[in-house]
Amino acid sequence: MSAIVATTESEADRPRVTYRTAGDHALLVEYGDEFPVDLGVNFFVHATARHLDSHPVRGVLELAPGLRSLLVYYDPTVIGQADVVSALRELHREIPEPASIVLPSRRLRLPVAFDDSTSRDAVDRYRITTRPDAPNVVEGNNIDYIVRYNGLSGREALYERVLDSEWWNAFTGFYTGLPSLLPLDPRSEIVAPKYNPARTWTPEGAVAIGGPCVVIHPIESAGSYQIFGRTLPVSDLVLRARSHRVDPILVQPGDRISFYAVSESELLDLRRRVFEGRYDYEIEPGQYAVADHLTTSSDPRVAVEAERRRADRRAARELAKIP
Known about the structure:
InterPro entries: CT_C_D, Cyclophilin-like_dom_sf, PxpB
Radius of gyration: 21 Å
Number of strands: 17
Protein name: Allophanate hydrolase subunit 1
Oligomer: single chain
Order of helices and strands: EEEHEEHEEHHHEEEEEEEEHEEHH
Shape: globular
CATH superfamily of the largest domain: Cyclophilin-like
CATH topology of the largest domain: Cyclophilin
Keywords: ATP-binding, Hydrolase, Nucleotide-binding
Strand order of the largest sheet: 7-14-11-12-9-8-15
Structural class: alpha+beta
GO molecular function, one term: hydrolase activity
Largest sheet: 7 strands, mixed, barrel
Pfam families: CT_C_D
Helix content: 25-40%
């Protein structure tokens, strides 16, 4: 028996929609195609979730936006699955065209120390305890592998891509507080395969990449993304004096992050200030107009350069060993 309960083909500026059963109390709504990753689809997901929040449907309890999906929890004693699908179909028709979508979006500025000793320790533990022959571990780090896999000229080229773009938090998931970031400038796109098998330990604050998404680890955990640096804590389960937020999770879906480079000693000092309650995170409330992204990505010079970099990445990937 198929889990798919309904589909809607793409039309005008709206993506194709697939509705799947997700147990007795939820519906998984998938938008567009799995590949390639499309920020436009993610903007549509966020616009849908926001519109449903402001135009509630009786019986719909909770929404969980993903990269290209929306998990909708509902009370089956109040509303049936078919009625949820009907309500969503109607709602999708009310979403404005992409150039008119404006989403709530804060801007956050975070420091990053590239190739820090704590991240190298995590990589080296993996080499010693799990996989001595891992092709993604090069001289105790993942950075040189990321550089090679993306066809970059060197480490500085990788760092420039991280620093040159704002990073859109497409969704928070896998576990609580883990942001998955995509660059708003297509020229900053980077990709990397995951570890195989996963690490058993990743430091809190590690910045890593898997597939096209950059993540920031909110807690110590296992992990399978390639680590390239470390930043400040992005979760605070015990709120401190002068805390930067009421919510214990710093990075919310739809936030934009820009990174700036610091030395490891500078980062350690900033982290100490966070733990002592003496640090104010740089957070600017605001909105993001999707038209801004469309203008940037459709600029001929940007499009040509982005495609050239994708071609370099495809060629490099053919020569790289996959973990």
